[in-house]
Design a protein that fits this description.
The chain is built from seven helices and 23 strands. It is an alpha/beta fold. It folds into two domains: 5-119 and 249-336, 3-Layer(bba) Sandwich (FAD/NAD(P)-binding domain), CATH 3.50.50.60; 123-246, FAD/NAD(P)-binding domain, CATH 3.50.50.60. The strands form seven sheets. A five-stranded parallel β-sheet has the order 5-2-1-9-22, covered by helices on one side. The protein has a five-stranded parallel β-sheet with strand order 11-18-12-13-14, covered by helices on one side. Strands 6-7-8 form a three-stranded antiparallel β-sheet, with no helix packed on it.
């Protein structure tokens, strides 16, 4: 397979790359190890609200992904899911990319839009094997909050995800118990205030400082055994579902082996076109780092827009990058299938 830009990661920034490339007449191929496009927005928090997309006062993460997919419908692109890029090599000015399932793509440009890299949830270290409950009674992310309507839900964690979902799930009628190892939280202060108010109003139950000791049950959760780290007392609580929000283990995976200049788990780029120290390899979105970097979706949109300009020059050396305003360019309107009535 040959393509103008090979995009590693089909999250929001990867999807928007298709739009910016399409405007310039470039074709993209996206590869993602998930089973659907959208990245962490679709996989980890599809129902969480996003407020900082310019011109969009409010939309959920999944609505944002759906809007991006709608936006790139006019353009021809390939989407390879359930595959992970394993190796890259270069011949002349062309990169050869190979996945773990044997797919091979030739391209002059590689855009790494892998978000925070590959990730897996941090799980509690318990003596009892609770794997039989995972995916049906125990979850590490929420894809459909209606599953928890009018159910007893035990949430473990002290960060934004634990606090946010405590607030959101009680809105749909869930009977929520929030369990944390200390009576201080890492999440947004305003959300913590909301959680404590809900506890005072007895709309949720806040249990601190507690840690989980055991989960009893095979097909269902019979009980959850907690241990108070202050009083040393044990407590049993009941729940239909358990949500663990202890965070994610983030790894660069095979990217570590590509000899790119790194800073921790981030890829160093320049701020002219967000190219790495390897010509033809760009890093856009949360995966990159540079002075003043902000991990925001809108920052990733800016980065990939400029990177596509340089990618065009690698596809068509010596040609001027075509530029036009989407409000007035008839050529762009034709590409988008738009006509004035």
């Amino acid at each position: 397979m040959k393509t103008d830009i090979l995009v590693i990661g089909a999250g929001p920034v990867g999807l928007f790359t298709v739009f910016e490339a399409g405007i310039l007449g470039l074709k993209c191929t996206l590869i993602d190890n998930l089973d659907k496009p959208g990245g962490q927005c679709a996989e980890l928090y599809p129902d969480k609200p996003i407020f900082d997309i310019p011109g969009v006062p409010y939309q959920t993460a999944q609505e944002h992904v759906d809007a991006l997919l709608k936006q790139i419908e006019p353009f021809d692109y390939d989407l390879i899911l359930n595959e992970r890029v394993e190796s890259i090599s270069k011949k002349d000015d062309v990169w050869l990319v190979t996945t773990n399932k044997g797919s091979r793509v030739e391209t002059p440009n590689i855009f790494i839009a892998a978000g925070a890299g590959s990730f897996e949830p941090i799980k509690p270290n318990l003596e009892r094997d609770y794997s039989s409950l995972e995916g049906n009674k125990i979850f590490y992310a929420i894809k459909d909050k209606t599953l928890f309507k009018d159910k007893k839900v035990a949430i473990f964690g002290g960060g934004d995800s634990a606090l946010d979902w405590t607030v959101e799930l009680q809105k749909v009628g869930a009977e929520v118990s929030l369990v944390h190892r200390r009576d201080a939280f890492r999440g947004a202060p305003d959300t913590e205030i909301s959680v404590r108010k809900l506890n005072e109003e007895r709309k949720i139950e806040l249990l601190t400082p507690f840690i989980i000791k055991d989960i009893v049950g095979n097909k269902n959760i019979d009980s959850i055994k907690l241990f108070n780290t202050g009083t040393k007392e044990e407590l049993d609580i009941n729940a239909d579902y358990i949500l663990f929000f202890y965070g994610l283990n983030k790894k660069l995976g095979p990217i570590n082996d590509w000899n790119l200049e790194l800073s921790g788990n981030k890829i160093q780029v320049n701020t002219e076109n967000f190219e790495t120290d390897k010509e033809g390899i760009f890093a856009v979105g949360d995966i990159n780092t540079y002075p003043g970097k902000l991990n925001l979706i809108l920052s990733g949109f800016h980065e990939t827009t400029l990177a596509v300009q340089k990618a065009f020059n690698r596809v068509y050396p010596g040609e001027r990058v075509p530029f036009g305003y989407t409000t007035s360019s008839k050529k762009i309107h034709e590409k988008l299938g738009y006509s004035e009535k």
